[in-house]
Specification:
- The chain is an alpha+beta fold and 452 residues long.
- It is built from 18 helices and seven strands.
- A five-stranded mixed beta sheet has the order 2-4-5-7-6. A two-stranded antiparallel ribbon has the order 1-3.
- The protein is elongated, with a radius of gyration of 35 Å.
Length: 452
Amino acid sequence: MTGCKATLDAFDDQDFGQRARRLRVDTLIWLRWLAIVGQTAAILTAHYALGLQFPVLACFVCVAASVAVNAGLRVRFPVSHRLNDSWAIYILAYDVAQLAALLALSGGLANPFSFLFLAPIMTAAVALPLRRTLTLLAFALACATAVQLWRVTLRWPDGAAFEPPNLYVVGMWISIAVSGAFIAIYGSRIAEEARQLSSALTATELTLARQQHLSQLDGIAAAAAHELGTPLATVALVVHDLAAQPQIAAQWADDLRLAEEQVARCRTILRKLSSPDTIAAASMEEATLGDLIEEIVTPHRLLDVAIEVESQGAPPEPICRRNAGLIYGLHNIVENAVGFAERRVQVSASWTASEVRIVIADDGPGFPPQVLGRLGEPYISTRGGGARRREDEAAGGLGLGLFIAKALLERSGAVLGIANLPPPGSGAVATIVWPIEKFEQGRLPLRQALES
């Protein structure tokens, strides 16, 4: 995860979609136009169709204020502008205040449209932090209280006042408070999980892009070696011809010898650079199960943790297509096991005619119970013990290792299960299982050839 962390640190919140999840000005403007049309229709219907008596002109002044706010926002911001949290909360607070003014002019909380206090709260819950959403909820409840204390009495067509019982009004206030709190907490929780998932998936894509970039360097090196081979051969030929001339060889013997040595050295380097081009495609793009595991565990054998690898199954050994996602996912699992192991990590591979199974177990402290049920979610990085892992976390971890591993392995068709070893043992065990056709996807013709 260190490479992933370095990659992610190079991007700001805009690259992770934080800015893209902010409220667009155009969205709020269109929602307010919808509210303006609805408010206008409600005022006209209540006064002219139902005959209810209330200050219609004052209500239209409130509606006109929203029209002015929309016009001001359209002038102030471009259509695609996304509001920061401060601007968004101020605009939503205006919507609450404007609705409160309309309700105060039309009967207070007895007005059935008082439940529209929940609309700005719901918008804030999915787009703003919980702290700001709760602030908006508190403001809405203060406005609801003020509406009931300082309201214009709604009257029937015959002039009789509409005065519902106090118990009904109190019940309306409580229902707005309870519904608002539920929407704020529930909506914020769902939105935060979606934001975390989106950010983690973005981190996964960045990591895969980085791995793919590194893989492409082999091809670039091979192409460079191929292009440099011809001019280097020409230089070698010229040096050889000069060394064949006695007069020049006598005068420049040391320089010619040095030039020949350096040409030979350059040829050796070019042969190393061109090796990806000379290796058969199968050995680069395909690997047996054993070779795949050895490739993953080899970088960790230099640490002070013994890594034991064992495999069992009837021949032929399964062959998979090598891809950055599968390798990186398994690498993260092994890296996590090595990071928390005390002395030993056991990697067991087995296969049957129907499935391929890899089990990675360590003798570390295992996962805490409160974390075990949430493994595979983004930003879950708590695990007890492990000196090497504590050093890594002190350097700053994203808690995305297992999430990325799970996402990549499931993309390859695997099912990942993680658990603690049962007592008296200690440590964690990860089990990755593929159906054989998923593991050997694209390799079935070769398997049939090997079996025959």
